[in-house]
Amino acid sequence: MRVLGVDPGLTRCGVGVVEGVPGRPLTMIGVGVVRTPADAELGLRLVAIEQGIEQWLDEHRPEFVAVERVFSQHNVRTVMGTAQASAVAMLCAARRGIPVALHTPSEVKAAVTGSGRADKAQVGAMVTRLLRLDAPPKPADAADALALAICHIWRAPAQNRLQQAVAQNRLQQAVALHQAQAKAPVSTTAPAPKGRPA
């Protein structure tokens, strides 16, 4: 499984690609940051993020995209920028038909470090260890993107089983409805004959 993790942000949007399966050593395929100038117009910044993510999708061909779920913070301006960058990442993936998963920061921290309250240094240290890197990826946005990808690889099988169970349940309901409709009595009243035109 190859996953592109995206740590959304307007100034620095972390991106990282990890490949592997649960229970086996993971491999980092690439890591980086899509940057935009803080003084540029918002629309141009979003276009720059789109172009950057598109390049990563073209180059690495991930099977899934994992994006950090935006959560409420005290700084509304930061939340808005994060949400806008997150939407761009989801749009890029959806346009190509790549499934997108959203993971909360605490979910990612818990998956990677064992604690949902881990700080950025702990996340970076564990990402370095799990991917057998020489040093933590810099900046922290890049390490967070890799952590998102790792989290998705480890949690995807459980999520897939849940989705399959939901899909199976819907299928069973549809079959039952179809069978019930097939057993319903059919009206045998013949339609009234139409009059002949004059």
What would you say this structure looks like, in words?
- This protein is of the alpha/beta class.
- It has five helices and five strands; from the N terminus they run E-E-E-H-E-H-E-H-H-H.
- A five-stranded mixed beta sheet has the order 3-2-1-4-5.
- Helix 1 crosses helix 2.
Radius of gyration: 24 Å
* Proportion of residues in extended strands: 15-25%
Mean pLDDT: 89
Intertermini distance: 73 Å
Secondary structural class: alpha/beta
With helices defined by DSSP (H or I, 4 residues minimum), what is the helix count? Answer: 5
What's the SSE blueprint?
Blueprint: E1 2-7, E2 12-19, E3 27-35, H1 42-60, E4 64-68, H2 76-95, E5 100-103, H3 105-113, H4 120-130, H5 140-183
Parallel strand pairs: 1-4, 4-5
Antiparallel strand pairs: 1-2, 2-3
